[in-house]
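Data availability excerpt. The first of two example chains:
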Amino acid sequence: MTRLAMYRRWQLRALHRNQLTLRHLVETISDPAAFQWRDGGEPDGWTISEALGHLCDFESYMLERARFLCGETDDEPPQPEAGPVVMVKEAGYAGQDAGELLARWLGYREALFTLLSGLDCDDEALWKREIDFAGGPFSLDDQLFLAAMHDDDHMNQIVKIARGM
């Protein structure tokens, strides 16, 4: 096994563990008012539901890109038409139930994890295959490494919101 294949396996485990971590984080928030709080204050900060909605948007794009790169579909994956802040506001995630958004994200994540974990981590050609996405090349490797880091950023954001920071 190459070093990069080992790193891929570690990242896949992180994607899987993050499902449990995010679920635990959201389901153990005991103060219902915390779901109305925003990080960074009004109007620029996000609520927990908005952070979860953004994670749903991100994960759905990641899943479609992965399916395309793995040859599961010939349809070019959609490109976001707006940045995440605009998408979160337009979708009205602040008024949506955090539990439902969490369940949606878990579904996307499980599908992405199942797809990626079924790939040969030593298949360099597959993991390095690229598409042009949002103005630049993007590979399965890029997706795998970005997804785990992205999870961490937003789990930390949710902790800060729940703590009223």
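And the second chain:
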Amino acid sequence: MRRADRLLQILQILRRERRPIAASRMAQELEVSLRTLYRDMVALEASGVPVRGEAGVGYVLEDGFDMPPLMFTAHELEAIMLGARLVDGVGDGDLSRSAKDAIAKIAAVIPASLRGHLVDTPLFAPHFERDGRPKLDIAVFREILRDEKQVTIDYRDLKGEYSRRTVWPIQLSFFRNAVLLVGWCTMREAFRSFRMDGIEHHEVLDDRLPIPRKTLFVRWLKDRDMRKHEWGETAADLSRLRGV
């Protein structure tokens, strides 16, 4: 790999991550020595790229740095198309159309020599027919997530028990047999997952989330990791998260 290409790849790695990245990790991905990686970082800093590094922590690209879009590689185009086909297989109708529109926009601007790697990628994903279809439009809940609004749901769990809860939504999880709404349940005062096909009615509240969704997401990750450590993530364990 030419040095110019390697410097661009380093920038791409730094843009991809939000946390500091160890020099050893970048060197391993680029298949170069640590000495070469350190020289490259010095070259980037000398050219004015706001890279901040700390011994024992790693490198991070400071906010505010902008660079023109990079040309896609064949591997990146294959990944994009496979991702779009996965969305088409598991997402709602609006997401499926948006994935196809995004592919059309990308295909319109990339060189003809690369277009085949995108459009004719021999990588496919299945279309899943879920056992339980959501009673509500999933696109509505995606908008709720974007607006960071609270929502009250009338929910019936897998045991048939009914409850009315106020939820602070943090994400939608798409699985083969179900779509789950993950959020903080004010009734249980804990993070819970609700099957979308179990939500019989919902009401979007005027109140925004009292805590930013990104902060709630980080707390949910820590809570999930703690549960994994305590009792493992088996199929039986996961059932405890679905609206209990």
